[in-house]
Model the fold of this input.
Amino acid sequence: MKEYVTDNLRNVAFVGHQGAGKTTLVEALLFNTSAISRMGRVEEKNTVSDWDDDEKERGVSLSTSLIPIEFENTKINVLDAPGMTDFQGEIKNAIRVADSVIVVVDAVAGVEVGTELAWEYAEAYQQPIIVTINKLDRENADFQRTLDNLKQSFPDYKFIPVMIPIGSQTDFQGVINLLTMKAYYGSGKDRSDLPADLQAAADAAHTVLVEAAAEAEHEAAVGLRGVEVQLP
Ligand SMILES: Nc1nc2c(ncn2[C@@H]2O[C@H](COP(=O)(O)OP(=O)(O)O)[C@@H](O)[C@H]2O)c(=O)[nH]1
Ligand SMILES: [Mg+2]
Done:
């Protein structure tokens, strides 16, 4: 792997409740950046991140794996942390050493104990948080319900979608990126125009995103931070 200068290095912790899909997401990122030619599956005990025999046996992550991913001249050191609350130390340390945190949430189960625990640590270390709502292809998955659940669970935070789903459950087809205002289907490599029936919803969500970015920029400019927290 080539050498990267600090400006092109990112350390990102993947956290969330056990089974939300963190390890599978890391596998998909490795596949979509061509680091691997075939996507492994947790059930097949052949993912890159769950390399430990105990992890393969139990089908869960037991310790934090460090997975380098290269994307657009940037090296992203992904810290795939366990989700089980037994491994709080691993979760806390992954969050402490990261630059930002991705909280993975299951769109069927919504916010779970492991989600709250990871959020607490991310807040304590004042980490920027990105939420990935996962498993939208599963029965009973609901993007809006999960978003509302997040807002209720973490009222001090603003949740602004950057992508919205196309279809849901068995009809889940892909996502609309509200930055590029393009649709991405399947593995997401190919982009296309928005489906006509989602144009209005995408325009409205795009406006909310642009306004939130402008507001955040304004807040940053006037130096207001809002919530003060005590480290545990
Ligand atoms: N249907 C569906 N299953 C998923 C998805 N992501 C993960 N899974 C399954 O959910 C289970 C837990 O996934 P895993 O990546 O180990 O979750 P982790 O504990 O958060 O690392 C595995 O059986 C995965 O195959 C998804 O987007 N859709
Ligand atoms: Mg895992």
